[in-house]
Write a structure and sequence with these properties.
CATH architecture of the largest domain: 3-Layer(aba) Sandwich
Oligomer: single chain
Structural class: alpha/beta
Distance between the termini: 49 Å
Number of strands: 12
Helix content: 25-40%
Order of helices and strands: EEEHEEHEHHHHHEHEHEEHHHEEHH
Strand order of the largest sheet: 6-7-8-3-9-10-12-11
CATH class of the largest domain: Alpha Beta
Number of domains: 2
Length: 357
């Protein structure tokens, strides 16, 4: 692995054992996460992005399993571990120290019967052997760092005594306590109001830069991707359909699905304004069609699309698309600045409407 690559996912397959058979939820997913940078996994609900994250973290539900591929983690000293073949003991040793995850529901992720200070202190006691007093001191400092007011007095409070935004800050604090090489952030701003969302993402960016972490951001929010991520991996039906630098992918999309997502961003926050959307629904995992996975919703679909699964090919340096006709898609060019500003300005307009309500 390259020295700056903290996480290398190659050909990852995840299967779900359902009553009526085995379903492939993640199909040959590959991407890399670099230190000090953010890569976003983007797509509609059910596209496989969260399943990919939980497979990397080793917290898949019992009915799911990694069926193929490799997940290679490089620590700060350059040692590489293949997580797909690591033992449970090795996984536990890496948890928190090298790989951490922030879930979207902080109230569920935090233990309701223990004070937050106890939960924050636990990584320091387990992995660094600190005394109870020393670990408590570290917990207070961590609370202060993530913006919890009056941490000395609130360290003994319970999760339900904090607001949603404060709980999310606590969850982030636990995740970054031991300065992991890779942080997985699975929809970290879900159910938070727009002002708190911005604060949480600003905190994640600061911590990423301070600790030189690689961040994998799982989201369906295009504005969040443009504002926070360096590169993006677009997923559909468990497959990667496009990947590259955010400016390239948003400015010169090479896949009809990415184009459809960008076109679906509302250009007006006015009530009653018409909205563009991608017609149809993603396929069921039990009915993934042969050929292109996007064929039933694609405006460019042809016979070749129904017969042959497209392989990812280079649209421009570092920018790849899994579409037989990516040249036709990318010919509808807009500048990256125009694409990004439209996404962001539209998001800001809609956020202002939400705040006014």
């Amino acid at each position: 692995m390259n020295a700056s690559v903290a996480l290398d996912v190659a050909g990852l397959d995840v299967d779900i054992h359902a009553p009526h058979g085995v379903l492939r939820a993640v199909d040959s997913v590959s991407f890399q996460a670099h230190r000090g940078r953010t890569v976003a996994l983007l797509g509609e609900s059910g596209c496989g992005k969260s399943m990919t994250a939980t497979a990397i973290a080793g917290v898949l539900d019992p009915v799911a399993e990694v069926a193929g591929g490799s997940i290679r983690l490089s620590d700060g000293a350059g040692r590489v571990t293949d997580l797909t073949s690591a033992s449970a003991k090795e996984r536990r040793g890496l948890a928190g120290k090298e790989l951490a995850i922030v879930f979207q529901d902080a109230l569920t992720a935090l233990n309701p019967v223990y004070p937050v200070g106890t939960q924050l202190a636990e990584p320091f006691r387990i992995h660094r052997g600190l005394s109870r007093r020393e670990a408590r001191r570290e917990a207070v400092e961590l609370m202060r760092r993530v913006g919890i007011p009056e941490p000395e007095t609130r360290v003994d409070a319970y999760p339900h005594q904090f607001s949603g935004g404060m709980r999310q800050r606590l969850l982030i604090a636990i995740a970054v306590a031991l300065s992991p090489s890779v942080l997985l952030a699975d929809e970290p701003t879900t159910a938070l109001d727009v002002t708190v969302q911005a604060q949480i993402m600003s905190l994640l960016k600061e911590l990423r830069e301070e600790r030189d972490m690689a961040v994998v951001l799982i989201t369906h929010d295009l504005a969040l991707v443009f504002e926070q991520a360096d590169s993006v991996v677009v997923m559909y039906a468990g497959n990667v359909v496009e990947e590259g630098l955010v400016e390239e992918v948003f400015g010169h999309p090479g896949h009809p699905y990415t184009r459809g997502l960008l076109d679906s961003v509302p250009v007006s926050a006015e009530r009653g304004a018409s909205l563009s959307s991608i017609g149809g629904s993603p396929p069921e995992l039990s009915a993934i069609p042969p050929g292109c996975v996007y064929q039933d919703r694609c405006p460019l679909v042809r016979g070749l699309c129904r017969e042959q699964r497209p392989t990812a090919r280079e649209v421009s340096p570092g920018h790849r698309s899994a579409c037989h006709f990516s040249d036709e898609v990318s010919s509808e060019v807009v500048s990256s600045e125009e694409a990004g500003s439209e996404v962001v300005s539209s998001a800001e307009a809609n956020r202002s409407v939400e705040v006014d309500r």
